[in-house]
Specification:
CATH topology of the largest domain: Rossmann fold
Radius of gyration: 29 Å
Distance between the termini: 78 Å
CATH architecture of the largest domain: 3-Layer(aba) Sandwich
CATH class of the largest domain: Alpha Beta
Strand content: 5-15%
Order of helices and strands: EHHHHHHHHHHEEEEHEEHEHEHEEEEHH
Strand order of the largest sheet: 1-7-8-9-5-10-13
Helix content: 40-55%
Structural class: alpha/beta
Largest sheet: 7 strands, mixed
Oligomer: single chain
Length: 452
């Protein structure tokens, strides 16, 4: 099953680095191999939408973390074998007939670089195979490797079907004679090239599982449980944003009877950060990776759409408001399919006047709220829209992030509370920054200069 996510959402959540700061991908990317890093990116681009697949990946990462299993390979070997296996030009194939006095002379004077590269590739590939055999042997001694059992069977199948027992007698050797090199090169680079690539892919998967488990240990992340329970769509305890030092944590609960959160709060109160935190946690949970929380259970979704940092499209003459309308239209098409989507809108219809924003917000949210398959988190400054919706809809949960005034200075708790807030402190912030004084002072100086 496919999990639907688009570029706007990936950018909003800073999955690959669009919004600055450390990206979510970079946060998790501590792999030992380039192949592992590429596979990690692929997992991020194609989240899972099947409960069993998600939970199995989660259990596998947890298994490696719990047993403190380290990556059993020399990471530098993979750069060597990648180039080695890519060279499938039959003209480079070694043969016993070439083991002549002429070849030995060329080797002696240091001009036989191609052969040395092939020899190095054979040695590296043999070391990887033997390390993989030893690793699987040790894993099978470990209790509870059920979640990784399918990969273990794939490793063993490659070892058996390709008759790779001969690698044992060459274990730990740094140099092979020419006849052995030619023989093994023919097997590894030509006869079993595809199988060797499959072996590397299994190792790259292992690399991802181990490195992500290490990240989970280092940062104290937790593993989400995927369910098909539509009555509890999202349950998160102590949610926080990965990129915030000493974050304030919040509990988030969205069920079938309250499939929409209407979020209010003053500027700088933390609405955008909270919504990004929810989006990131749901995204990571569908990748099967640990999440920034102490507990999470979620109903598997069909996709995730966010609208947090929506740009104008000046190239085609779109205003910000029209860009918003088109974004809502696109999401409406998806929601109308009666699939399970998580939809996040930050400051819906901010690009138009207050009257139109109020009317549009009420109309669109009433229509969205009726689509109980999907889940919506909407923030707005149009609190009048919330008051209207509260009277007409019983499946909308109203939450806000409060501001506490300390004299003339606003202080933010970043802690969710139930209800709607009319906190508006824009002018307080402007006054505190003394912008009007700066402008008036400049005006006075200009007046005095011209009236000397």
């Amino acid at each position: 099953m496919d999990f639907t996510i688009d570029k706007q959402t990936l950018d909003d959540l800073n999955i690959f680095g669009k919004q600055g700061g450390i990206s979510i991908y970079n946060f998790f990317c501590s792999t030992y191999t380039k192949g592992g890093a590429l596979l990690l990116e692929k997992m991020f681009r194609y989240p899972l939408a099947d409960k069993d697949e998600i939970n199995n990946r989660t259990d596998t990462i947890r298994f490696f973390q719990k047993n403190k299993i380290t990556f059993p390979f020399n990471g530098q070997l993979f750069d060597i074998v990648d180039k080695y296996l890519q060279n499938t030009d039959v003209r480079s194939k070694l043969s016993n007939e070439e083991d002549t006095l002429k070849r030995k002379f060329r080797s002696a004077i240091g001009v036989e670089n191609e052969y040395e590269l092939l020899h190095k590739g054979v040695i590296a590939m043999i070391e990887i195979i033997n390390s993989a055999k030893d690793f699987i042997h040790q894993i099978k001694k470990t209790a509870s490797f059920k979640s990784y059992e399918e990969d273990v069977e794939k490793f063993e199948f490659i070892f058996k079907i390709n008759n790779l027992d001969w690698t044992q007698k060459e274990k730990n050797k740094k140099h092979l004679r020419y006849p052995e090199t030619a023989k093994y090169d023919r097997i590894l680079r030509f006869e079993k090239n595809r199988e060797m690539r499959i072996l590397l892919e299994l190792i790259f998967r292992l690399d991802v599982f181990i490195s992500v488990g290490n990240i989970s240990t280092t940062y104290g992340l937790t593993y989400a449980k995927a369910t098909n329970n539509v009555d509890k769509k999202i349950e998160i305890k102590d949610l926080y944003h990965l990129n915030i030092k000493d974050p304030v944590k919040n509990d988030v609960s969205i069920g079938k009877n309250s499939n929409m959160i209407f979020l209010t709060g003053a500027n700088m109160a933390g609405k955008s950060t909270l919504m990004k935190s929810i989006g990131i946690a749901v995204f990571l949970a569908h990748v099967g990776f640990p999440v920034p929380a102490t507990a999470m259970e979620f109903c598997v979704q069909d996709g995730l759409f966010t609208t947090i940092n929506l740009p104008d499209n000046m190239n085609v003459g779109y205003s910000h408001f029209y860009a918003e309308v088109l974004r809502v239209k696109k999401i409406a098409y998806e929601v109308a399919k009666e699939k399970k989507f998580l939809i996040i809108f930050d400051e819906l219809f901010r690009g138009t006047n207050v009257k139109d924003a109020y009317d549009a917000t009420v109309a669109i949210l009433e229509a969205f709220a009726k689509r109980e398959q999907s889940t919506f988190i909407i923030s707005t400054h149009i609190i009048e829209a919330g008051e209207t919706l509260m009277k007409k809809n019983d499946n909308i949960k109203f939450l806000y992030l409060p501001t506490k005034m300390e004299g003339e200075i606003p202080a933010y708790t970043y802690t969710l509370e139930e209800g709607i807030t009319n906190d508006r402190h824009g002018m307080v912030i402007i006054r505190n920054e003394k912008i009007l004084e700066i402008l008036n002072e400049e005006k006075q100086l200009t007046y005095e200069f011209f009236n000397r």
